[in-house]
Structure formats: structure tokens, C-alpha cells
Design brief:
heterodimer, A: mainly alpha, Four Helix Bundle (Hemerythrin (Met), subunit A), 3 domains, 11 helices, B: mainly alpha, 2 domains
């Protein structure tokens, strides 16, 4: 299907379901390999280490040093087990959500009568005649209503699932139903949004007609205004963090003699960076604890670059396949754009997996959300993680469009506008990483 | 993040190296991230006995953050080359952010004892309620 022919047959949507199946398979294989395979072996090692430690505690012949050593072996084995188990489970959950979005969205659109797509059929070779037909959509507003309902029922929704999973508590249907209705509206609106956007070939972009954005694409101005509101969201986290951090007697402040008179090492407040960086006050930090955060930083920067490459490739009229080994990865323009987006998606997914692995280690070490420093850390980095994950769900659609209709110099702005959001997420991490992980 | 014709530094880099500004921006971002991690990874400057102090770490993290932020916003988000209105839009909330960092972030009574008085709100009710 050419990008210059905006007729989209219903059958195209079956490809979304195919992709959903492929993603689900990847999730199951990853869970099998990481969680059940390596994770189970690591659990056995952990179990043995734990038994050895508890046995040694009962044994009067074991010295303190030996006990200390056994305890550390047990902790290392536990963290190693957590690494693989959490990575496996997270990958599976992420893939299930991806598959659900693509599968349900694809299914809803595939079930639509073909005429539903027909409103654009006549554009084909005469798109110049339809510049006045705008590309606006009511779907985002409908989705917002869905999000509102979902969040209204969400707190008790979580509680309602406990009895269903046999974890006790009483089942309350009301809020769960509210959340499910919200979720259904979200899915339908997203599917509708996709159906409206898929045939879009770059003609009919709404242009602002008054200051200050006169002559600019309304969608681009809109995404910038949205990003600015996001800046304020993250500013609240940073100002809160700064407000409470200046009160803490951290290791940095203690070493510099900035804590209150008479403060001892026992008064030092442990921050996340104390657990993660080498030389941190918790004494747990080394190269390996620092690695996930550092790798995530590089992953986001690389993903920012790959999405720029996707846009650059889409916009390049004279694009040629590379002559070196990359020609297998980038054989033609359409596949090149798609593959750059897939790499971006993979890097973003890796970011989420590593973040949760890192969280599990921090929680296991005792850095929990129950403390003030844990609360601000998990809320700020969690909010950032949610932004990354939301971006990944949008990117799923970009991959789907790149794989079916394709992006070119006319409709590449879809990648551009999403890219602005993705770069902002990267930009937020540029501040979060040093503030919460390094300092 | 729109595509613009290369000018100035971008054109010079393209002519001299054959690689575009996105590639070099990516390299700079990677290098400074490595530098940033290194700043806290080492307790002393490698090869010397000079201890990396708290203020040195502050300096490095802030300077590197500004460089990386500029690289992402100017080149990846393409504020350089896009109409000025986008840069103005991007800078619009900075005033509010600074106000929040000052009015909330530095309003801690404990912070007042540590930071110079000119950079704290120093409201009476913060210490005398």
C-alpha cells in the first residue's frame, strides 16, 4: 500500500492482531527464559543460600565473620533472583499490554464496515482538492472521559481485584465496573483515533490562523503547549524534592559538616543514590547497582537519536539504502523507518524493565515507599516511567502505521510530533537522573 | 524536530565530517552522560588524590545537565531552526518553574540556615508559627 494512496482496507487491521500475537509470543518467551528459566535456577541458589544462612545462625561454631559472609551471599543470591524474575514478569506484562492495545484496537477496526474507511477513499490521486478537509479528531476528548472514569474507579479497582485473585478482602463491583467502563471507552476511542489517522497522508493539516502561532501546524503548537504543562508537572516533583531534601542530613552534607551540631553518622538520611552509587552511605552501591540507571540514561538518549533517524529517513526524498552491513536492517525507506521505530520501542521497553528491576533491588535493600525519601523517589521516577510507558503505547501505533501505510516526506510529521514528546521524556530524565540517582 | 536546511555549525560539521548535526549531538550527549556518571562513580579524580567534593559534583551535574538539555532541545527537538514562537513557548514556564523552586523548594526552615538569605524566601511563618 503506497503512502500516497490513503485507502485503507479493513484487512490491514488484521496485521495489528498479527503483530499483537508476535509481541505476546516475545513476552511469553522472555518470561519463560528469564523468569521461569534463569529465575527458577536463581531462586534455587537463593533458597540454598538462605537455608545455609539460617542454619549457620543456629550453629554456635560459626563465627561472626562467617555469618556475615553467608548473609551477604544470601543477599546477593536474592538480588540476582529478583533481577531475572522481575525482568521476566515485567517483560511479560509489558507485552500483554502492548498486545492488548494492538489486538483490541485492530479487532475493533477490522470489525467496522468497509464504508467506515470510505470517507477518504476518493482522495487517492486527487488529494490536492481536499486541502480544506481537516485532520482534527474528537477521539482524544472521548479518551479523556475514559481516563477520567478509569481513574475514578481505580483505587478501589485494585482492592476489588484482590478477592478475585484469592487474596482476601470483600469484592465491591461498583468501582471495578466504573474502571472497566473507562477502560472500554479508552480502547474504543484509541481504536477510532487510529482509524482516523491511518489513512492520513499529510494533506489537510490544520493551520493556525491567528497569533501567536499564525501559519503553524495546530498539532505542533498543541504538542508544545502540552509539553509545557508537563514541565510544570515535573517542576512540582523537583520543588517538593528540593523542599524536603534541604532538610536531610545526607552523607554529602555530613561529610561537609553541614548537618546540625552533634549529628552523628546514625543521623544520616539515606537517599536512593546512597543505595545505588559507589561510596553511598548505605554501603550497598557498586558498579552493578549503578548500571541499570546509567544504561537507562544511555537507552533514552539512543532512543531519542533513533526516532530522529526515523523522521530524517521519512522526510528524505532521496533516501538510499546504506552500502554497508546496515543494508540488511535498512533495505528500503519504508522498512528503515519502521525498524528505527522498533528500535526506539525496544529501548523504551528496556528502560521500563530495568527501572522495575532497580526498584525491586531498592525495596529489597529496605528503601521503600514508606519513607519520605522513598516516597518522593518512587513518585518522581514512577511518574517519569509512566510517561515513558504512555509514549511506548503511542509508539506501537507508529510502528503499525510505518509497517502498513508507511511514513514519507508528506506524513512524517506524525513521527515529528510524537518525537517532541519523546525528547521531552528524555529531557526530564536528564534532570531526574542526576537529582535522584547520582546526588 | 522539523527538517531544516543545515546552516552555520550544522553545515560546517556536515561538510567537514560528512555526518549531520544529529549524529554529533548524539555523540556529545553520550560523552557527557559518561562524564556525569563518572563524576559520582569516582570518589577521587582518577590518577590524583583530589577528592571530588559535593560542590564539584554539583558543578559537574548542573553544567552537564545544561549542555545535555540544550543539545536535546535545540537539535533533537529542533528549536534551532523552528520559528521563534516555539522557543518562546518552551521558555514560557521557566519563570513559573523558578518561582516554584524558590518559593517551595527553598522554603524549608532547615534550608535557611544552610543557604544564603538572598536565595531563600525567608518567610516569618516558616520559622515562627
Amino acid at each position: 500500500m503506497s503512502a500516497h494512496n490513503n485507502f485503507v482496507a479493513n484487512s490491514v487491521w488484521s496485521r495489528a492482531m498479527l503483530m499483537a500475537g508476535a509481541i505476546l509470543t516475545i513476552g511469553i518467551v522472555a518470561f519463560g527464559a528469564l523468569g521461569l528459566g534463569v529465575g527458577s535456577a536463581k531462586y534455587d541458589t537463593y533458597d540454598s543460600a538462605k537455608t545455609a544462612y539460617y542454619d549457620a545462625m543456629e550453629d554456635p561454631t560459626v563465627t561472626e565473620d562467617e555469618l556475615y559472609e553467608l548473609h551477604h551471599v544470601e543477599i546477593d543470591a536474592h538480588l540476582s533472583y529478583l533481577t531475572y524474575w522481575i525482568a521476566g514478569v515485567t517483560t511479560l506484562v509489558i507485552c500483554i499490554v502492548y498486545a492488548m492495545f494492538l489486538g483490541v484496537g485492530g479487532f475493533i477496526n477490522m470489525m467496522q464496515p468497509q464504508e467506515e474507511h470510505g470517507h477518504d477513499d476518493h482522495h487517492g490521486d486527487h488529494h490536492d482538492d481536499h486541502h480544506d478537509e481537516h485532520h482534527g479528531s474528537a477521539s482524544p476528548i472521548i479518551m479523556c472521559i475514559g481516563v477520567l472514569l478509569f481513574l475514578m474507579g481505580f483505587p478501589d479497582f485494585v482492592e476489588s481485584t484482590r478477592p478475585l485473585l484469592g487474596q482476601g478482602g470483600s469484592f465491591v463491583a461498583g468501582d471495578m465496573i466504573l474502571s472497566m467502563v473507562g477502560l472500554t471507552i479508552i480502547m474504543i476511542s484509541i481504536a477510532n483515533w487510529w482509524r482516523e489517522d491511518l489513512p492520513f497522508i499529510g494533506y489537510g493539516e490544520q493551520i493556525a490562523t491567528s497569533a501567536p502561532f499564525e501559519g503553524e501546524h495546530i498539532r505542533k503548537a498543541g504538542i508544545w503547549v502540552f509539553i509545557m504543562s508537563e514541565v510544570m508537572v515535573f517542576a512540582t516533583f523537583f520543588s517538593s524534592y528540593l523542599r524536603i531534601r534541604t532538610e536531610w542530613c545526607t552523607k554529602w552534607a555530613f561529610d561537609e559538616g553541614k548537618c546540625s551540631v552533634g549529628a552523628t553518622e546514625g543521623d544520616i538520611v539515606l537517599t536512593a543514590s546512597d543505595y545505588l552509587r559507589p561510596g553511598g552511605a548505605a554501603g550497598t552501591g557498586d558498579f552493578w547497582t549503578m548500571l541499570p540507571g546509567a544504561v537507562n540514561t544511555f537507552a533514552l538518549i539512543i532512543s531519542s537519536y533513533t526516532i530522529v533517524l526515523a523522521l530524517k529517513t521519512a522526510k528524505d526524498k532521496d533516501w538510499e539504502a546504506p552500502k554497508n552491513f546496515l543494508r540488511f536492517f535498512l533495505p528500503n525507506k519504508k522498512i528503515a523507518v519502521r525498524n528505527y521505530l522498533i528500535v526506539t520501542l525496544a529501548l523504551g521497553s528496556m528502560f521500563i524493565v530495568l527501572k522495575l528491576v532497580e526498584w525491586s533491588h531498592l525495596i529489597a535493600e529496605g528503601f521503600t515507599v514508606g519513607t519520605v525519601q522513598g516516597s518522593i523517589f518512587f513518585v518522581a521516577t514512577g511518574a517519569h516511567g509512566m510517561h515513558v510507558f504512555a509514549g511506548l503505547l503511542i509508539m506501537l501505533y507508529l510502528v503499525f502505521k510505518a509497517d502498513t501505510v508507511g511514513y514519507d516526506e508528506d506524513n512524517g510529521q506524525g513521527i515529528e510530533y510524537f518525537g517532541l514528546y519523546w525528547h521531552f521524556v528524555d529531557l526530564a530524565w536528564v534532570v531526574i537522573f542526576p537529582a535522584f540517582y547520582l546526588y | 524536530m522539523g527538517e531544516h536546511a543545515a546552516t552555520g555549525l550544522e553545515k560546517w560539521l556536515l561538510d567537514k565530517t560528512g555526518k549531520d548535526i544529529y549524529f554529533w549531538n548524539f555523540q556529545v550527549l553520550m560523552f557527557f552522560t559518561l562524564f556525569e556518571v563518572g563524576a559520582v562513580f569516582f570518589e577521587h579524580i582518577p590518577g590524583t588524590d583530589i577528592r571530588i567534593s559535593r560542590f564539584m559534583v554539583w558543578g559537574i551535574l548542573i553544567v552537564v545537565g545544561i549542555i545535555k538539555g540544550y543539545g536535546i532541545a535545540a537539535y533533537f527537538m529542533h528549536l534551532r531552526g523552528d520559528p521563534r514562537i516555539y522557543t518562546r513557548t518552551a521558555l514560557f514556564p521557566v519563570l513559573f518553574v523558578l518561582l516554584m523552586l524558590w518559593g517551595i523548594g527553598l522554603s524549608n526552615p532547615e534550608a535557611i540556615t544552610e543557604l544564603p538569605s538572598w536565595c531563600t524566601p525567608d518567610w516569618d511563618y516558616a520559622t515562627n508559627r
